[in-house]
């Protein structure tokens, strides 16, 4: 016995097309058997002959048979017997029959019974046989059971795992083949392809001599070509800015691989994420050498380039612009950016920011994928000259009031630094960074004059000169939850290398943890932790400042203390407000220098009467923006003093 199923070509129809017709008796088999049954009464013969004539007339319209509109004659069935099988299969066939002895049935009702027996799936052939007796017609249903499945093979299944095939056909080897179970198993294999976006299916199968052979068809990618389109006309253009290999290196779909819709979507997102294109689309075409047995598709990547460079200017807020840390200062900015330098997707930026206190000038070049290496390493080279306030550590004590500005009333830190940084992904959500930089830090008063001591006559540099120099190597490992932007972790280690005797020599370790917990459909709990330690040469301005908008709220910037060691923790409840997109917050913060404030040169925290540890609590509102969350909060500290905080970005 041989069973064979043919399925439509995959490129025309991916899903399974209807049940497979295998074997069985033709529509006229029972009619002919009943019409020619010998012996028995004349009445039975007449009924049989009339039924046969009616069947012929209805099917072909010829002869002298009865028309369709007349009721079909009934045949008295005296006995029903199933032959050709025993045991369980015979019971299954009998249970499928509705024909019962000593009842009259039409020819169509008997044929429907035959179809029901075949529909059980256990038989390759089902045919009726009739014998005329004195009591009526004896109906025999002759069946031929399917063979036992002795082996199972699958050809052409390069991606379909053996375990999936075994699971789909579990229980079938060693038993009689059931066509219904076979179709369900094939449907499961087709569903496996479909669920994973793979253009594949079981295109054919044969069953002969107990050997069940599946033929799988998996469409293979023939070629991948790029086509640049004009943004206005949509027509192909010859002159392009982006070099082809910059695009193809983002494609995981290669010629010869099985076509995978999920992989295509990932490739589209990867190319689009470069920021070089307004539109990215993939057009699929059947390859010229594609066949039903070996389907093949060609891919055309349509690309519309966008403008990647330009000048910009603007203004905003700087959270570090106020020495007290409650209200940010104003800041103006100017920048030039090019995101596709030399057509290599390299980025060049020149920026300047000038605020009430802070100033920044930066030149930066980034290659997001150095030499297309398999680890996707990026490199950033940067030269920066900035000026920031040092008042979080060297500002006035709160007891001295706020009106003693001018020379000696504050400390400015000028940093000139240059360095290079390499970064690469490590695994899902994890990335690693290796950096080296050289920086010179200069201390100045509010008029820009070099100083070596603050207003309390405490030294503010380690070298006792008005500047310190450090060569720093840094390693950082970070994790960001791809499904939650509020969950991440950062561990960083810095080592200052004393290549010259007067250069700084220290080791700094920093840890940051953020975790988001959902307490219900609307309420969320956000936990954060910070810790740090420095061993070795520590200029006072490099101590850990504790307190402020992004630290312990309720205090000014650095109002809790500053030390060689620090630990901070905070918890914040968030719930959406009826006015979207505002979110209400309630928080509690804690921070401590772990008693290390006195270990800093000049003890700047102790001189200013800072407690060294403290907590704050309060509430506020926040709103998401393109540059991060904007926060307006009010907090009370451990002394019961309250203050407003305005934050921009993530703390």
Q: What is shown here, in short?
A:
The chain is 15% helix and 43% strand. The chain has 651 residues and is α+β, with helices and mostly antiparallel strands. It folds into 4 domains: 29-145, membrane protein fhac (Ubiquitin-like (UB roll)), CATH 3.10.20; 147-218, Ubiquitin-like (UB roll) (Roll); 220-305, Ubiquitin-like (UB roll), CATH 3.10.20.310; 356-648, membrane protein fhac: a member of the omp85/tpsb transporter family (Porin, Beta Barrel), CATH 2.40.160.
CATH topology of the largest domain: Porin
What does the radius of gyration come to? 41 Å
Question: Spatial order of the strands in the main sheet?
Answer: 12-13-14-15-16-17-18-19-20-21-22-25-26-27-28-29
- Largest sheet data: 16 strands, antiparallel
The overall average pLDDT, rounded, is: 85
- Helical content stands at 10-25%
Q: Please state the structural category.
A: alpha+beta
Low-confidence stretches: 10-31, 33-69, 321-326, 402-408
Total count of domains: 4
Number of helices: 10
């Amino acid at each position: 016995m041989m069973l064979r199923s043919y399925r439509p070509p995959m490129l025309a129809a991916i899903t399974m097309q209807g049940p497979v017709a295998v074997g069985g008796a033709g529509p006229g088999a029972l009619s002919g058997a009943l019409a020619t049954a010998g012996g028995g009464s004349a009445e039975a013969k007449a009924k049989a002959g009339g039924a046969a004539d009616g069947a012929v007339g209805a099917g072909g319209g010829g002869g002298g048979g009865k028309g369709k509109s007349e009721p079909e004659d009934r045949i008295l069935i005296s006995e029903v017997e199933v032959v050709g099988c025993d045991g369980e299969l015979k019971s299954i066939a009998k249970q499928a029959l509705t024909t019962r002895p000593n009842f009259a049935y039409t020819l169509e009702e008997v044929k429907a019974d035959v179809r029901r027996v075949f529909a059980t799936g256990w038989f390759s052939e089902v045919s009726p046989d009739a014998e005329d007796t004195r009591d009526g017609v004896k109906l025999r249903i002759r069946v031929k059971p399917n063979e036992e499945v002795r082996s199972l093979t699958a050809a052409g299944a390069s991606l379909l795992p053996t375990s999936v095939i075994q699971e789909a056909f579990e229980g079938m080897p060693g038993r009689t083949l059931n066509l219904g179970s076979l179709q369900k198993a094939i449907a499961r294999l087709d569903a496996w392809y479909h669920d994973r976006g793979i253009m594949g299916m079981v295109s054919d199968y044969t069953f002969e001599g107990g050997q069940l052979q599946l033929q799988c068809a998996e469409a293979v990618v023939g070629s991948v070509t790029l086509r640049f389109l004009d943004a206005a006309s949509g027509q192909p253009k010859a002159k392009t800015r982006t070099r082809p290999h910059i695009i193809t290196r983002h494609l995981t779909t290669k010629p010869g691989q099985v076509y995978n819709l999920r992989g295509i979507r990932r490739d589209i997102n990867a190319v689009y994420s470069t920021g070089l294109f307004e539109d990215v689309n993939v057009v699929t075409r059947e390859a010229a050498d594609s066949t039903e047995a070996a389907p093949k598709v060609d891919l055309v990547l349509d690309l519309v380039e966008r403008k990647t460079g330009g000048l910009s200017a603007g203004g905003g807020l700087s959270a570090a612009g106020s020495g007290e840390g409650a209200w940010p200062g104003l800041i103006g900015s100017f920048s030039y950016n090019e995101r596709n330098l030399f057509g290599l997707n390299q980025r060049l930026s020149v920026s300047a920011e000038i605020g009430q206190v802070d100033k920044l000038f930066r030149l930066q070049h980034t290659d997001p994928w150095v030499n297309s290496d398999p680890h996707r390493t990026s490199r950033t080279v940067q030269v920066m000259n900035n000026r920031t306030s040092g008042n979080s550590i060297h500002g006035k004590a709160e007891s001295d009031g706020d009106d003693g500005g001018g020379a000696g009333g504050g400390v400015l830190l000028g940093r000139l630094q240059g360095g290079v940084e390499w970064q690469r992904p490590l695994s899902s959500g994890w990335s690693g960074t290796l950096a080296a930089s050289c920086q010179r830090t200069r201390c100045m008063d509010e008029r820009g004059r070099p100083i070596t001591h603050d207003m309390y006559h405490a030294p503010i540099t380690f070298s006792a000169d008005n500047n310190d120099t450090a060569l720093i190597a840094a390693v950082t490992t970070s994790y960001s939850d791809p499904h939650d932007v509020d969950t991440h972790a950062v561990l960083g280690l810095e080592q200052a290398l004393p290549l010259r005797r007067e250069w700084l020599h220290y080791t700094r370790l920093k840890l940051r943890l953020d975790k988001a917990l959902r307490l219900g459909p609307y309420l969320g709990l956000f936990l954060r932790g910070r810790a740090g330690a420095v061993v070795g040469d520590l200029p006072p301005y490099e101590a850990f400042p504790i307190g402020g908008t992004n630290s312990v709220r309720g205090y000014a910037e650095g109002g809790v203390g500053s030390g060689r060691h620090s630990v901070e923790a905070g918890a914040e409840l968030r719930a959406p407000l009826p006015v979207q997109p505002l979110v209400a917050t309630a928080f509690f913060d804690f921070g401590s220098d772990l008693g290390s404030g006195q270990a800093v040169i000049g003890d700047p925290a102790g001189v200013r009467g800072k407690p060294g540890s403290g907590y704050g609590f309060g509430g506020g509102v926040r709103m998401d923006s393109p540059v991060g969350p904007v926060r307006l909060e009010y907090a009370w500290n451990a002394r019961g003093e309250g203050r407003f905080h305005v934050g921009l970005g993530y703390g």
